[in-house]
Amino acid sequence: MAITKLMNIKQGKMGGSRHLNNSIQYIMNPKKTEDGKLIGGNAGMTPKEVYQTMMDTKSDWEKLDGRQGYHYVISFKPGEASEETAYQVIKEFCEEYLGDDFDYVFSIHNDQKHMHGHIVFNSVNRMSGYKYRYENGDWEKFIQPITDRICERHGLPPLEFDAEIRKGKSYAQWEADQKGKPNWKKIIRADIDYIISISENETEFFHNMEKIGYQIRKGESQKHGVYLAFKAMEQKRAWRSYNLGNGYSYSEILSRIKTEKFVCKYPTSPKLRFYRIGKNVKYIPMLEFQKKRIRKIYFVSVGCHNLKNPYAVDYQQVRKSMLHINQLWEDVTYLRQEKIQTYEELLCRETEIKEQEKALKNQKYSTDFLQENEVYLKYRSLKERLKEIPESEDEFEKVLDELEELEQNLPDAVLNGKTFNEQEQIEQKLQILREEKRIIRHIKREETEDQFFSTPLQPIERSKDKKKEVQEQWVKAR
Fold it and tell me: What kind of fold does domain 2-165 have according to CATH?
């Protein structure tokens, strides 16, 4: 079972509560709910009744502005729950978590292979008039224990978060952005930029993206509308276009295809320049275990080109080969830096890393790496300010909106409620060890898969008789 995080329903750009009304209309759609048979709640039986009930509550307490409501989406795996079970799970959750304090409506949608339910509830407590408050960390503290108990009662697996709706970035991606290092998001954006420049229409764009090794599918979401999902052959999951940033949504890509055309930066061949190597170049000997990677880099690079016809190129194979070359070069650099000379030394280093990682995981996380980061300092200041705002005031909604924007540019470690002083130093060390483990796993896989490069190459015999034989064959061929 997977459940998204809580989504808030804000006012429209011109004010009003049309987004709340649209959400109610959507989850109560008769075509998705067996003509209303899979709908429940305490605010009414029709979209008009539910909307009016929520607006009456807002009017009674004079809380018409700010956030209008909240929306949950609970999904079950195909075959995991029947319509009746899904309905009962969501019904019990609403009764236990929302009770009589909030106006709510819920429904089960059975229009897809997986059963899923929606909950929309009012932002104003109809008993006290206070606005509903949700802060990071409340999910684990208050909501998840309730859902876990309900799932256990119905024989369902415990709730799991949906990774796609994570607010912040992974630590690795955050660090890569800070240091300007490449990551998949940057690679996909660069590939899209290039393919846009050489495509004339949407069909050609899809075809060219597939030629360089991407799988593309078109989807539609309630929040973002039509989107594209891009997945390179080396990726584990796809990236949706609305997560790639400005200029990469479906509509923006179509607009850019019409306006952006490829311009060659080098209309003529660049002039060749000579470089003289200095005399004081230090030679560092390379051992056989490291040389094998260099040999393989050569053979992989040769194998990805068509020497007879350079234009008959398999772009998918070229991309795969280039990534393979980058990995092999990373392996060589690592072996030389760590002075690892044999496969046995590599295994010993792997054992040491596992022991260090285990020791670090047993310690408390300590993170002060953002103490000078302006975004984090502002985030921390707003978190402290939020604690001082009384529940009866609406100002906290503005603070929460600011926090949500800042959370997009902070690593996930920030969002778990722990202080950075408890996390950073060990997290940094763990990240270095994880990176080293990844390289070691790749080297081991190469050693296992390719027996040719796991043994030293034998020197070529160059006897005088062999040389004479080759010369005679060459004369006959002429």
Answer: BirA Bifunctional Protein; domain 2 (3.30.930)
